[in-house]
Amino acid sequence: MSKATVAQPRVSGRSPAARESRVRARRAAILRAAAAIMVRTGYHEMSMQAVAEAAGMSVGLIYQYFGNKQDVLRAVIVDILEEFRDEVPAAMLSAGDDPYAQLAQGFSRFCRVIDAKRDAVLLAYRESQTLDGAGREEIMRLERETIDPFRAAVQAGIDVGAFRPVPADLVAHNLKLAAHGWALKHWDLAPTRSLEEYVQEQLDLLLAALAL
Amino acid sequence: MSKATVAQPRVSGRSPAARESRVRARRAAILRAAAAIMVRTGYHEMSMQAVAEAAGMSVGLIYQYFGNKQDVLRAVIVDILEEFRDEVPAAMLSAGDDPYAQLAQGFSRFCRVIDAKRDAVLLAYRESQTLDGAGREEIMRLERETIDPFRAAVQAGIDVGAFRPVPADLVAHNLKLAAHGWALKHWDLAPTRSLEEYVQEQLDLLLAALAL
DNA sequence: ATTCATTGAATGATGGTTCATGAATCGGTA
DNA sequence: TACCGATTCATGAACCATCATTCAATGAAT
After folding, report:
1. pTM for this one?
2. Among positive and negative, which fits the CA dihedral B200, B204, B210, B212?
C-alpha cells in the first residue's frame, strides 16, 4: 500500500490572487518552522521531515516552494538580514540632520532588532558558510547595504568639520560588530548590563573616537 | 575475505616514554588533518575516513585517541583558543608597565595570531555551537582568560588616573571583537587596508575612548 | 475532464562507530 | 640466542542509522 491518503484542503481557490497569497503563506510557514528548528539544533541536524511536520505540510510540498534544503537556509538568513537592511537606515532617516544623532539612532535600532532576534543572528553567523558562493555574495551585499548609512553619516560629519578625520568605513564596521556582538557574546555581556546600558556605553566608547 | 591486511609498523617501542611520544604524535597528526579538512569543508562535511587518510592511519585508530567525531572538533577548537590564551597575555607582559603600551602590544599580537589562523578562527565561530555544553563552557573560559589582561590593563590605567573612567570589561570586549573582526569580516576590511594599518587604525579608534 | 496542489513511501547515498582479525613488541625462559 | 605466550597497536569492512530528494498516486477546484 502506498501513496497519498489525505490531501490537505486547499486554503483558497485558483485565482491568481489566491494562488499568490497561498504561496506567500506556505513560504512563510516553511521559513518560520525551519528557523525555529535551526535555531535550536543547527542546519545539519534539521531534517526536512521535521520542517514539514512543524510547518503542517508534507515533505514533498516544501520542494515545490524551495529548490532544496540549502535554499531554505538561504531564505531564512536573507530574511533576517533584510530586516536589518530595512530597519537601520530607516531609523537613521528619522533622526534628522545631525550625523551624531543619526549614528546614535541607527545603532540603537540595530541593537534592538538584534536583541529581538539574537538566536537568528547567531544562526546567520554559524551557517552562512554552508551557503554556496552566490548565497554568500548576497549576504555580504545585504550587510554592506545595512551599514553604508553609518559610513555616510561619519563621512558627512567629517566633511562638515563636526568629527575628527577618521576612517569612516572602519567606524561603521565597528558599530556593526558592536551590534552583532550583543548577540555573539551575550553570555559575556548580558550578566553585567541591560541592552539599554549596552547601547549607551557603546555609543559613548565608539563615538568618543569622533570627538575633535 | 575481510579484516586487517597490513598493520602499519609501530613507530617505536613500548616503553612509557615511547608510548607517550607516539600518543602525542598521533593526536597531533589527527588534529592537523582534521583542522585542514574542516577549514575547507566544515565539520559536518568532514568524514572520519577522510581524516584517517589525511592523517595516514586507519579510522579505527582515531577512536583510540578521541572518543568520537565531536571530540575531535573540540580538540581542534581548543587548540586554537589556547594559542590566543598563551600569546596575548605574554605579549602584554613584555610591554612594561604602561597600560597603554600593554593594550597596544596585546592587541597587536592578538591580531597577528588571528591573521595567521584566519580560517581556524572562522571555524571556531562556526562550529563551536556544535559542541555540547561542556565544550562550550571550555571555550568561554578560554576566551575570558585571553582577554582578562585587557580588562586589567584598562582598569589599572583608570585607577592610576591615566584613563577616563569607562567600563573596563567593555573596552576589553571591543578589543577582542576588533581582533576577531579581522577574521570575521576579512572580505570587507582586507581590500582597503593591510593588517598593520588595521591594527593602527583600530588602536587609534578604540583607545581614543580612554583619553582624558 | 482537466488541471493543479499535495501526499508520503521508496530510493539511493552517505558516514559514524564497532569489532573481529592480524601484526608488532615485550618479558621471560631454556 | 632462539623461541613462546601475552599484551598492545592497528586495520578496515560491515553494520546501522539517518536523511535529502523524487515521483506515482490522490484529492480538490474549476
Report:
1. 0.93
2. positive
